[in-house]
Design brief:
By secondary structure, the protein is α/β, with parallel strands linked by helices. It is 30% helix and 31% strand. A hairpin with a 2-residue loop joins strand 4 and strand 5. Helix 5 runs parallel beside helix 6. The radius of gyration is 24 Å and the shape is globular.
Length: 309
């Protein structure tokens, strides 16, 4: 088997409307691969085709054409093995309120046909830090605990690939950090993670590589670091002793903005000039700098640049 956990080649999905005879392309010639053991981000605006793609992987939507290979199994030839190779954590929290986490995991394992002697319910509960709530009603769990229980349910058949679909939607910062701590732990233990999220800073922090899709087309695929290198502009924030709000600041290739009597921002294209030139210009205008901070942009800037959203 190759070192790819997932291979997608020329994947297409077309929805046809029998009444209007119109066709809608949800996915067009989508091609990418996910390597074993990485955290891979799949990003895109609403309607980009992410949900359609995950539905094809999960077996609830049929593809129109193309190849999907999961953990060495062809989706067309070995659909059951493909399903066994992935665990999908949905956006919606859908748990039976009167079952305990332990009961829910045992039930899920039974649905997968896993023999009682081969179940690892206790281990999974420990992996998602829910061993202390193993026998509590699911309705008594906090929002973050319910999210972790969804991850646990997706792990009962020990899939090598875990797909997280907007796992932190509606979760507060503390619970989000806790959730990611658990995901990182699973990844260190060898689980390949595929993540969709609207929190772009989250993707920037978590993902090794990122694919950005828009209107069913792949518009970018690279390491997070290289995607960030695509940002052409650099922004510097200067804290100064005092500046006249009406002071005209002009320098070729730079856009200055006086934010307040003590703050000025300078925006310019990377590698277009030497930082020292800006300092010299400030000195010439008797602007005394007290502090400097830089902003090289983030994944959100790349996302907007590529999708115009």
């Amino acid at each position: 088997m190759s070192n790819n956990a997932l291979t997608v080649e020329n994947l297409n999905k077309i929805y046809s409307n029998s009444k209007t005879k119109k066709e809608t392309k949800a996915i067009t010639d989508l091609t990418f691969e996910v390597k074993e053991g990485e955290v891979f981000g799949l990003l895109g605006p609403n309607g980009a085709g992410k949900t359609t793609f995950l539905s094809i992987l999960g077996g609830t939507v049929s593809k129109t054409s193309g190849l999907v290979n999961v953990w060495g199994f062809d989706l067309d030839k070995n659909p059951r093995q493909v399903k066994a190779s992935i665990g999908i954590v949905p956006q919606e929290i859908n748990l039976d309120a009167f079952f305990s986490p332990k009961q829910l995991l045992e039930l899920q394992a039974g649905l997968y046909g896993i023999d009682k002697t081969e179940r690892i319910t206790e281990l999974i509960l420990k992996m998602v830090s829910l061993e202390g709530k193993a026998n509590s009603y699911s309705r008594s769990l906090s929002g973050g605990m319910k999210r972790r229980l969804l991850i646990a349910k997706a792990m009962v058949h020990q899939p090598p690939i875990l797909i997280l679909d907007e796992p932190t939607a509606g979760v507060d910062v503390e619970l989000r950090n806790n959730l990611w701590k658990n995901v990182k732990k699973l990844n260190k233990e060898g689980v390949t993670i595929i993540l969709t999220t609207h929190y772009l800073l989250e993707a920037q922090e978590m993902c090794d590589r990122i694919a950005i899709i828009d209107k069913g087309n792949l518009v970018a695929l690279d390491t997070t670091e290289k995607l960030l290198d695509r940002i052409k502009t650099k922004k510097i924030n200067f804290k100064v002793q005092l500046v006249n709000l009406n002071l005209p600041l002009h320098m070729e290739g730079i856009k200055f903005k006086i934010i307040s009597s003590k703050q000025i921002t300078a925006t310019y294209e990377k590698n277009s000039l030497n930082f020292g030139e800006i300092i010299d210009y400030f000195n010439q205008n008797n602007l005394k700098i007290e502090d400097i901070s830089t902003d090289d942009g983030d994944l959100e800037d790349v996302f907007v640049q590529l999708t115009k959203h």
